[in-house]
Design a protein that fits this description.
Blueprint: E1 9-15, H1 20-30, E2 38-43, H2 49-59, E3 65-69, H3 73-86, E4 89-92, H4 95-105, H5 121-135, E5 150-154, H6 160-169, E6 174-178, H7 187-191, E7 197-201, H8 204-219, H9 228-245, E8 248-251, H10 257-274
Parallel strand pairs: 1-2, 1-3, 3-4, 5-6, 5-7, 7-8
Length: 275
């Protein structure tokens, strides 16, 4: 068994497409290890003989671990052959699950590396959702707020914008509207179907830390923006408002935006089925 090292272990992901799915899988798995154990680099779009040759040449000069996600059996074999020659540990990320599905279903796969990114109706719906979400960020576009599939609200720095973008990638037209206790909430927000609205909240200490970073990096002033007592009052106010308006409350403390978005999707589905 390899001995622990102070330097991150390089992991090279080889993909015949964007590599985003493989990156997501690996980054999720990396969370089960101590921070900084692995460093990930991606060689993507290895979808032709020319690109494969370039990839193999890179692998001959790399170190660490190699994980490949390609649908072509011949590409798998050649990648694994070079890794064996270089003494690199190599793993097939997609092969075992495909073999399992074949055994369990009796069906044979149709090899096509581009099928995941075909220009289907779902693809164009996602594009439209992203465009809507960009146009309705941070309280912009209130006149068409009623068209949203989801509306995120909450005080400043509660991860509304990044969560909105993840929801958009799932095909949901998502708007986000900030809440400020000292200001009257937009009438358009108060009139939108409450089953669509989710108020994001989090622990006051974490919110204060997020705001402190923003002050240091961008704002250059504070004005009570990071004061714990003031933040606690803001959060209590948003909870009262949410209960009054019938909005869902979602605590995002310690959650990655992907998990927040997944929980928001779950809440939206539950509330939609209840209406």
């Amino acid at each position: 068994m390899p001995q622990p090292s102070s330097e991150p272990i390089p992991v090279t992901l080889v993909s015949d497409a964007t590599g985003s799915l493989g990156q997501h899988v690996l980054q999720t798995i990396f969370t089960q290890f101590a921070t900084g154990v692995f460093s990930l680099q991606v060689i993507n779009f290895v979808d032709s003989e020319t690109h494969l040759k370039s990839c193999l040449e890179q692998l001959r000069h790399t170190q660490g671990l190699v994980i490949h996600a390609t649908v072509y059996e011949s590409f798998k074999r050649r990648i694994e052959k070079v890794c064996q020659e270089q003494g690199l540990a190599v793993y097939d990320l997609t092969g075992p699950i495909v073999e399992f599905l074949v055994r369990a279903s009796g069906q044979r796969p149709e090899v096509s590396h581009g099928r995941l990114h075909e220009l289907t109706t779902d693809y164009f719906n996602r594009v439209a959702a992203i465009e809507y979400t960009i146009a309705h960020d941070d309280g912009v576009g209130l006149k068409t707020l009623y068209q949203a599939d989801a509306v995120l609200t909450g005080v400043s720095r509660t991860t509304k914008t990044p969560t909105s973008m993840v929801l958009a990638m799932h095909g949901l037209c998502t708007a986000n509207v900030p809440l400020v206790p000292e200001l009257e909430s937009p009438q358009e927000l108060l009139e939108v179907n409450p089953s669509k609205v989710i108020c994001l909240t989090l622990d006051s200490a974490q919110l204060a830390a997020f705001r402190q970073v923003r002050v240091e990096q961008q704002l250059g002033f504070d004005g009570g923006y990071t004061d714990r007592e003031h933040i606690q009052k803001e959060l209590e106010w948003t909870r009262r408002l949410s209960r009054k308006r019938g909005w869902a409350l979602l605590d995002v403390t310690g959650r990655a935006v992907e998990e927040t978005a997944a929980r928001a999707l779950h809440l939206l589905q539950i509330r939609k089925s209840d209406t």
